[in-house]
Sequence to fold (52 residues):
Amino acid sequence: MHIYSKGWYIAKLKEKGIRFHPEKKKKLELFKIYVVRNLYNEMIEAEEKRKD
Fold:
C-alpha cells in the first residue's frame, strides 16, 4: 500500500476506530479519496486540539 493513497487513509482511520462516515453513515470505501483525506485531516486536527 502506498503512503497517502486511498487505502492508506482508510487503514489509518480504521486504526482509530472510524469505519463509517460520521455524517453520511456509509462505509469509507464508498467515498472518493478527497472525502476520506479530509476526514483524516479533521481527525488529526481534533487530536492535536485535545493534546493542547
The mean pLDDT is 94.
